[in-house]
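re: ur question from earlier - yeah i can do the single chain one, its not a big deal. heres the input i used so u can compare w yours
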Amino acid sequence: MPQAVLGLFGLVALVALVEILPRIGVVPREYFPTSSGIGSALADLVGQGEFWTAVLDTLQGWALGLAIAAVAGVVLGILIGSSRFTRELTASTIEFLRPIPSVALIPIAILLFGTDIESKLLLVVYASFWQVLIQVLYGVQDVDPVAQDTARAYGLGRWARVRYLIWPTALPYVMTGLRLAAAVALILAVTSELVIGNPGLGKLLATAQSGGAIATSYAIVVVTGILGVLVNVVFRVIERRALSWHPSQRGELPA
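and the output i got, formated as C-alpha cells:
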C-alpha cells in the first residue's frame, strides 16, 4: 500500500480517536473537545479576517527570520569552513553558543525590542542560524582534499573554488540545514508570539486560551501543525529539485 495512503489512514484514525474519547468520558470534554468541535471552531476562524492577519504575521516573521539565518549561515559557514585556522579559532565559540536555548533569549528580546517584530526575529534567527551553519561546515569539510589540490594546481582562485568545488559539495548539506531551520523557525515564531505577545498565531492562541475558548485554542494548534507540514513538504520539494543531479535524490524523482 502506498505510503501516502497509509499516512491518510493514520490521520483518519487520529481524528476518529479524538472524536470518540471525549464522548465516552475517557478525557474531560470541557478541556478536550471532539474533532467535530475543533473542526467547527476552525471553520469559524477561517471566516475571520483577524485569523488571516495572524497567519500572515506569523509567516512574515518566519520567512524574514529564516532568510536572514540562511544567508548568514551559508556565508559564515563557507568562510569558516574553508580555512583550518578559522575552524579551530571559532570551534569553542560555536560549541558554547549553539546549545543556548532560544527561549532563554526572550527576556533580552523583550528588553531590547518589546513586542516589535525585531524581538521575534531575534529568536527565529538565533535558533535557525545554527541549523544552517553546522550543516554548511560539515559540507565544506566534506570536499575531497585531492580535488582541492587539483583546483589549486590549475590556478583556480578562491571564488572559483567556492563556486565549482565547495558549493556543489556542500549543497546537499545546505538544503538539509534549510529544511531543519525552516521547521525550527516556525516553532520559534509561534513561541515568541505566545510568550512575548508579537502579532501572529501565537498571540491569537494566547487570547483564545485566556478567554476560555477551548475549541478555538485547539483549532489554532491544528493550524500551526498544518503550517509545519506544509513547510516541510515545500522544502522537501525544493530540496529534490535543487539536488536532482545528486545520487541521493535520483531514486526519489519520478521517471
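The chain is about 80% helix and 0% strand. not sure if urs matches, ping me
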